[in-house]
Design brief:
The complex is a heterodimer of chains A (about 120) and B (about 500). With about 120 residues, chain A is α/β, with parallel strands linked by helices. Chain A has helices at about 10-25, 35-45, 60-70, 90-95, 110-120, and strands at about 5, 25-30, 50, 75-80, 100-105. Chain A is globular, with a radius of gyration of 13 Å. Chain B is an alpha/beta fold and about 500 residues long. The longest helix of chain B has 24 residues, at about 295-320.
Chain lengths: ~120, ~500
Amino acid sequence: MACVLIIDDEPEILSLFAEALSEAGHTVHAAGNGVEGLTLAKTVRPHVVIVDVFMPEMDGIETILNLRKVTTNAKVIAISGGGMSHNFKFLETSSEMGADVMLRKPILPDALVISVQACLEGK
Amino acid sequence: MIGEDLVKKVFSVIASRAEERDKADTVVEHHTTISQPMEVNLFAQRIKAQIKSHGEFLSGSVQMLGLSRLKNHFGDDWPHVSAKVHALIQSTMSTRLDKADCYTLFGESTYVIVFSNLSASVAGMKAALIAEEVSRRLFGDKPPKSLFKIGVAKVSGDSKIAFETLGSTELISNIASLHKRECGFVEVSVGPAEQGDKDASAGRTAPPLHTDTKPAGQESEWIPIHTAKAENADLYSWRPIRHQYEMPADLMFVYWPAWLVNQEMIAAHTCVPARVAERGIVIAGGGAMPMRHASVENFSLDLHSLTKVIDNLNELERQRRQAIVILPVHVHTLEASKYRDPYKDILTALSGSQRAKIVFELIGIDHTTPTLNIAHAVSMLRPFAKDLMIRTKLNAANFVDYQSLGVHAVGVDLSGIKMTEKEIYPQLNAFNARANKHHLCTFAHGIRTRSLTSGAAAAGFRYIDGGAIATPIMMPEPGRSWGARDVYSALIEDLNG
């Protein structure tokens, strides 16, 4: 099983995804924003990072860009609901910035577990 | 005017220094496709060619950008990061300088920039903006202060030369005298590029240039610099009007590019006050006004910005270029006739094509401002504008009134808000939702971080400006494409080294 880091400013999303991934057997670490996530990534060396695109203090894209300096091997899954305006341009941009997978919210926990597994298997 | 004599003199000093330095000394002609640094003598030739083609510079200024503080900041790491720093500076220069400008690098820590057609004060601002952009690219949204030393090269009647650090009391007073002079010698001295922090910060003229640029024992040289009559006229060309307040001498105006988010383009430029604060830090927006914000002061600011915008629109028209300008005006200016009438006099003189390029943004509005006053202001401005916007507070709720006034957009200035981003995020959503309910577009000014930029875009703000979008510029530009990726382009470039 893998080490998964989830970075999202919504506590409900964090706990929902953390629970699902833990049940799937992964070791899960959670951070409330990009700054915390980067700090955590340096110590836990995650195999997969799930990062929300729209976050205060350091948004998802800036986090992804900086993640590449910290951990080059981690797979990155960018997630976004597009905000109030359903703006998915930033989510699309995240793939240019190094995200391996993009998922639009709402995301079912099972679907996230499958995506993480697919990342780990290199699919 | 800056004549050939000055340029020859400057380059004789440059050339003499260049001979003393190792081959690593480089000169870059920023605007060409030449990727390799040029030799110093080519830099001099470039200037001479320019003089030959133009006769002489109509106006101009020599600025210094010193890196000694930056070097000290990095300490032992400097040898490892210096190449990146220089690459960033040269990359920034390539986009921020005009075609006729040139710059050169002395040693490893001093850039000299020749702004061929800018007054000293405008050039100083531009140099400070370049320093600010480099700082942000190096250190992110909250760069350490004062890591670049900016000096303006000027010459006094009695031939003293020094680079005076921007922001010092003496420089400000010199800029003030510059504005007031119609012509003649510029009486500011130019000093050593990397010497005299202490002197400059104490408000004294830094030691003469020769102490830095020439071997000890050589005599200093005195260079007369002439300023053109028209040089500063465009900055303060508005006619004297009663009730005006004398603006801070170093106050200038720059433009924030306004990003039209959904269309992925820069749609307009917002004219904002700016000034170079202590030790070269640029303050743009409301924070640039060291005043009490009394009506008379706001009125004077409005007049200044209006005349600045007209000057720039005239220049764009002369160049056959198109750009939309967002021009803030205080609602108080349009309330009392003693302010409103002279402001309106200038508006009346606007041509049809100019009116089609100005979007007025009513500012100074809060929950105490009577809707009737806003309505009067809107009706007064409408004949002179392409469209109208209202800047209000983040917690504003009277959007039904604004809708009835037929304004294009409502927005906020986030630059002075004392909240964390985590607190601002939900308020952006709520503001936008309230405005959209009344079919009003929204705009956000003064955004300084990428996370707030993406947050505002997610909230649905139609226009976003601020430092995270692009550094302010001296002139509005015709629309250009700008997408989500561009918000991170500087960061990507920096990470790629």
